[in-house]
Specification:
The complex is a heterodimer. By secondary structure, chain A is mostly helical. Helix content of chain A is about 75%, strand content about 5%. In chain B, the strands form two sheets. In chain B, strands 4, 5, 6, 7, 8 and 9 form a six-stranded mixed sheet that branches. Chain B has a three-stranded parallel sheet with strand order 2-1-3. Classes of the chains: A mainly alpha, B alpha/beta. At the A-B interface, α1, α3, α10 and α11 of A face α1, α3, β6 and α14 of B.
Chain lengths: ~280, ~350
Amino acid sequence: MKKKWLSYPYMIWMAIFIVIPMALVLFYAFTVKDGESVRFSLANFQKFCQPVYLKVALRSIMLAFYCTIGCFLLGYPLAMILASKEYVKKRMLLLLLILPMWMNILLRTYAWMTLLEKNGLINNFLGNFGLGPYQFLYTDVAVVIGMIYNFLPFMVLPIYSVLVKMDHSLIEAAEDLGAGRLTVFRKVTFPLSIPGVMSGVVMVFMPAVSTFIISRLLGGGQFSLIGNLIEQQFLWVGDWHFGSALSIVMMILILISTAILNHYDRDHDNEGVGGLW
Amino acid sequence: MKKGFWMLLAMGLLFCVALTGCGDSDQPMVYVYNWGDYIAEDVIDLFEEETGIKVRYEMFDTNEDMYVKVKAGGNAYDVLIPSDYMIEKMVKEDMLLELNYDNIPNAAQTDPKFLNQPYDAENKYSIPYMWCTLGIIYDQTMVTDPVDTWEVLWNDNYAKEIIMLDSPRDTIGIALKVLGYSMNSTDPAELDAAKVKLQAQRPLVLAYLVDQTKEKMISGEAAMAITWSGDAITIMEQNENLRYSVPKEGSNYSIDAMVIPKTSQNKENAEAFINFMCRPDIALKNTEYIRYSTPNMGAYELLPDEIKNDGVGYPEDSVIEKCEVYVDPGDAISLYDKAWTELFAD
């Protein structure tokens, strides 16, 4: 460890941009304004325990949960296709999957608005068959669709990287022993891919539970999530203390969900991707 | 160990230098912080040419964004253009410098109607830049009832055809107005009644938007939306079925005004800039580009008659008399926050 000083720039970077801001958030969360000064208090967390805020938190968790399920159902088969042996197509597919991520999330979400709105593409298409127009935009379904679209790659890539590294001889062995395709999947492929699934779930759930721009654009401001609540506290009310407390609550939520996943993941923790958290 | 310490210190210093950025040069400067798309395109160049003062121009999206950034310090802006209630808040918090009117002779062009407002009763800190009313923009092919009252926003015939504002102050303010209260109410009971009124309206509302209102109304996604007169003019140019109305119960009218923050390093340049913006030909350029209404009498005289008389940008005095300018609610903002959060919790 001779060149230890090489790590100092990173340490300073982390101190300025991670440790100090975190300390500030903690400071604000556990204090309240008392005239000109501030004093220690748990009032911000008490405030959060009111039913109004708990409802918003619950809605955030539910929407993020639906989004995670949706991403899993769509993402797993896609990851399997990507991990199968047709190399040429695989490159192309991977590229198509990642390409939208190079665009800004705002643009991607705006695109969904043109698809879903009353005079949008989907309703125009349905109109040809005498159906609709339906109100897709500004519903909670639109919010979940937007989340799934934006976060799908975070589910596919970890599963893909586990599947592609999987020892193929295990599958051959199972087939030799007379297992059908379904049994191979159920008993061999899926259990071995669980570390990938777990990190996929965490990586989708985290941004989904904290998003505020997707719910703003596709929900028409009607589906307030924790992220919207935090933004409102900082920018509009100017209550940095309660806003920080909400941020802490959200971080705890994410910590708990990762802890639960890691608990189930313990047996499979031997290979790369699963140890992300 | 010792070597490591010095290394650490040197890198820390390097960081600080990198973060503080470049120092001042000798060229006279003025740092302007204005709303996005809120100045005619060539005005800054004209100002630089005529005065030799270099303009560094930055933009914000909401008063609150601007406030957070100015309050945090760091950027020494010279001219800000916030709205009425935000100016009041900044005056209360002692964030603004008094203007020296000797350096701003063109301020005399300001229509007295827009002076001595509650946010700056003695005109010590601010000179109005633009003003507008809040009203309903509607598609006359879709709306059959007369749009002269806020009550039309509670009409079942337009279920899922109504766009409200994603802005607590304005949307709650409208409900207060319907109930016959002031838009500046800080009475918990009145705000609670407004919340109940808005909860009753929620099933009829398509969405609560701000920036997207424009395109949604142009493409006919909704029958009615709440918007500001300045934006209404821009929207109506792109869809001829749209009309704008300020309801008879009265509404909000807002003034954006130029102020100088205490952190300013170039106060005289700032005053030169404000003076330039008040010159009738420049104010005319700005109002024609932005489409908001000018409080500048010289510029108003130069406007074509159809703009003066179409009732959108420059309504009759009787309409304005019924409108209120927002007042900073102070700590009562938490009541608005509570009503707004409860409105969307279910």
